TrEMBL record:
NCBIfam families: ksgA. Specifically dimethylates two adjacent adenosines (A1518 and A1519) in the loop of a conserved hairpin near the 3'-end of 16S rRNA in the 30S particle. May play a critical role in biogenesis of 30S subunits. This is Ribosomal RNA small subunit methyltransferase A. PROSITE patterns: RRNA_A_DIMETH (PS01131), SAM_RNA_A_N6_MT (PS51689). One of its GO terms (cellular component) is cytosol. Keywords: Cytoplasm, Methyltransferase, RNA-binding, rRNA processing, S-adenosyl-L-methionine, Transferase. It comes from Oricola thermophila. Gene3D superfamilies: Ribosomal RNA adenine dimethylase-like, domain 2 (1.10.8.100), Vaccinia Virus protein VP39 (3.40.50.150).
Length: 281
């Protein structure tokens, strides 16, 4: 018996052996950096909190390291969405080990209707995705209507630098559109960092796990409009708002919202951004 014949704590083969047996050479184009350590994926699963009654939607499961941790930590049901069909046999093996508890969807998460998956009981969303996809999905989840949304929490891996933008507040150098959207609708916090060596292959930078919980009563604002205002304001973050917001009405808009046009985007509170979003000229 060699090391790779031994089973992991969940009774399935070790992830390294799964990756080798299914020939899952990682693809850069799909942003594949796999987590092969079940202790670490267990830590991410714990960051998502209790899931006994929950459907956990996991985006980008790859060979299933995080999926296995979610199941081991008692997720009632896990729905996985994976774009790379080479990963499906490995995911089917996990499904056979946990009968009735996994639904596997092959497809692009950016084209998935998440609300349609979320019709049975409370939902939590967990993902370790390529960061472009992750950011795009996060913005979609933050703009969800109606609010409070169908999910109870989001537990997501990002590059450390992106995680800092998500949790940034007014005045922070990382404050921008992501910080405004996340701060407006959720309580967002960085739970812990994950070093490059934890992944195969190791990425260039440190990653962080971010946990976001929807606020029950965010300030009223139209998410798309808020996104648009912050995009313009921070698109030229060193300029005064009367300049950067010109395409949306510039000084006229700022006057109507009662905001000094000589200020810069990074000084505005979330409440002030909501006021701008709610003002039409
Ligand atoms: N969750 C696994 C882990 O932690 O080891 C894999 C993480 S890897 C960073 C990202 C995974 O997302 C890959 O398996 C990749 O194929 C998948 N992926 C990339 N783009 C995707 C998309 N648009 N929709 C669904 N899955 C995607």
């Amino acid at each position: 018996e060699t090391d790779s014949d031994k089973l992991a704590v969940d009774g399935l083969p070790p992830l390294r052996a799964v990756v080798e047996r299914h020939g899952l050479a990682t693809k850069k184009a799909l942003g594949q950096n796999f987590l092969l350590d079940l202790n670490l994926t267990g830590r991410i699963a714990r960051a998502a909190g209790s899931m006994e009654k929950h459907t956990v939607i996991e985006v980008g499961p790859g060979p299933g390291g995080l999926t296995r941790a979610l199941l081991m930590h008692g997720a009632h049901k896990v729905v996985v969405i994976e774009r790379d069909d080479r990963c499906l046999p490995a995911l089917e093996e996990i499904a056979a080990h946990y009968p009735g508890r996994i639904e596997i969807i092959q497809g692009d998460a950016l084209k998935t209707d998440f609300t349609a998956l979320a019709n049975k009981g409370p939902v939590k969303i967990v993902a370790n995705l390529p960061y472009n996809v992750g950011t795009q999905l996060l913005v979609g989840w933050l703009e969800a209507e109606p609010w409070p949304p169908y999910f109870e929490s989001l537990t997501l891996m990002f590059q450390r630098e992106v995680a800092e933008r998500i949790v940034a507040a007014a005045g922070d150098s990382a404050y921008g559109r992501l910080g405004v959207l996340a701060g407006w609708r959720t309580r967002a916090e960085i739970r812990f960092d994950v070093p490059p060596q934890a992944f195969w292959p190791p990425p260039k930078v440190t990653s962080s796990v971010v946990h976001l919980v929807p606020r029950s009563d965010p300030l009223p604002a139209d998410g798309k409009r808020l996104s648009l205002v912050t995009q313009h304001a921070f698109g030229q973050r060193r300029k005064m708002l009367r300049q950067s917001l010109k395409p949306l009405g510039g000084q006229t808009l700022l006057d109507a919202a009662g905001i000094d046009g000589t200020r810069r985007a990074e000084t505005l509170s979330i409440e002030e951004f909501c006021r701008l979003a709610n003002t039409r000229v």
